[in-house]
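Hi,

Apologies if this is the wrong queue. I'm a grad student, and the batch job for SWIM-type domain-containing protein from Sesamum calycinum produced an output file that my downstream script rejects. I'm not sure whether the problem is my script or the file. Here is the sequence I used:
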Amino acid sequence: MIVGMDSVSGDDELYENFVDDVSAEMDSADETNSESSRDVVVSDNDMDEHRVSEDDENEPNFPVFNPVEMYNPSLELGMIFCSKKEFKKAVQSYAIKQKRSVKFTKNDSFRVYAVCSGDGCKWKIHANKLKNEETFQINLYQDEHTCPQVFNVRNVKTSWLSERYLQDFKSDPKRDVKGWRVDIMNQLRCHISRDQAYRAKRQALKKLEGSPEQQFTKLWDYAEELRRTNPGSTIILGVNDVKGPHKGILLTAVGVDPNNNLYPIAYSVVQKESRDTWEWFLTVLKQDLCIQRDNEYTFMSDKQKGLIQAFQSVFPNSTHRFCVRHLHNNFKNAGYRGLAYKNALWKAARASTVGEFKLRMEEMKQLNQDAFDWFNDKPPTEWSKSHFNEFPKCDILLNNCCESFNGNIMDARDKPILTMLEWIREYLMRRLQENREKASKKWKDTLCPKIKKLLQKNVDKIGDCIPIKANDRHYQISCYDGNQYSVDLEMRTCTCRIWQLSGIPCKHACSAIFNQNLQPEDMVHPYYNVDTYKQVYEHAILPISGQTLWNETGLVPPLPPNFDPSSHITSFQFPTAIFFLLETHPILIQMHIRHTTKRKSITFHTSSYCISASLSQPPFHSSFAITLG
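Support response: The file is valid. Your script probably expects a header line. Output copied below for reference.
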């Protein structure tokens, strides 16, 4: 019994000792965990980095190819690639780097073998697909070449060039291919053919901008994104079945702001120029600008196909002006060339009174009766200041704002349709902000800078004028050239009509204003004030998200007009017109249209600024329309 008790007592001691040891170990573990609590894994990435399985511990540590080094690769035995494509591209880049041609002797789903094309060269490389993985591993590599370097490396392909130098064309899409080809040949020390260089640029731009077909499928989604981000915008995407290719035409409505700079109002892409497209464009513009009485509007344009008929249909009570530069070109083409004819025409165009106009036309008649008769079917109301309406406060004879805008968007017109439209939208967004910031931070005077310079030119000429005061309102101005004018300071008129036409005091008015101890700046029409300029630019075009974030409309995607419906699904639709109108302008009071020479255009001039609708021809086949708010 005593022995048994002793045995039990001994077991209890052993158990108690075991429990004490376990408790001590647990306490030690708790202390360890407490001390290491600072190193707790806080992210999935950290957990992945610290997780090591028994299989991983047993696997050898092979080098892994870094895609960052794709165009300057270093290959070695055992290196792992994430895919066959990555391995082949790395071998291609290696061949170009070494200036030796390499050919692939085996290329299937499980093996890729390559050897050097040099005579008798021992260089070769093998890569096999790892079991149950998509990765490839180099399992044979003879890295020494026994052949000389070559200048014509067969591995220099168009696709490789377009990917390698993608950023070059992204930063400068207009980069000259000839110069770029020379630079790359000097860099690689390899031959690149002229055709390769041009194809590489085309492929690079296609990767950056997408194909025209892909971009047309996004037009509905793009329009919806504009509506979402810029409330108040008018988006019109007209579609119709079309057969055969049609060149796209870009139409823009461009205005002149209070500083005599261009102010884009609307832009549109249509299939072709015709009376129908012009009527559609002018109708949408008229509706969005809420033009009620078209008899208050004067349009300036050329006699392009269908344009005059469109004006007569949409604005039947309006008057027209024509760009004098375009008129002079037609005058020259009729056989009346030379400085004498040019000066005679421009003197008649710049004449501000009917009497002066008759005098200038008589001079042309003395110069050449046939030249004088050439103007018989061209009413002076269309091209001479002497017959212009005084209400618009705009005496412009040229359409420079349209030419300027077309020049600014030149880089956009050869791009696919979505890229082109986004290029124009971003350009307008930046321009509005830059002008808004410039006016608020830099302009401290009452008048806009360019208007102030025009006024100063008239002030500098008051030495030619002798003012005779009739009362506090009326002055008689005698000039050294023998002419005499009457100025009414209260009505802000001069019988030379320049003040009424432009809204800026002429030299005769400035002479009377100074004699009355007034300031000419206070007599300029308020349309040209800095405050008016700020009102014009107070609205902004808001940014939009990238294509991956656009809401899908689910509508039938349109296709380019040169798409052949006979060989494809006929349920697709073709866009015929797209119209954009910016809701960033003040209420219009009056409008004039003018035209540019090399590009067909129209210009509307308002009391506060001018709107010009110009037409240019981008080298793509498209047709689309929208309006920004």
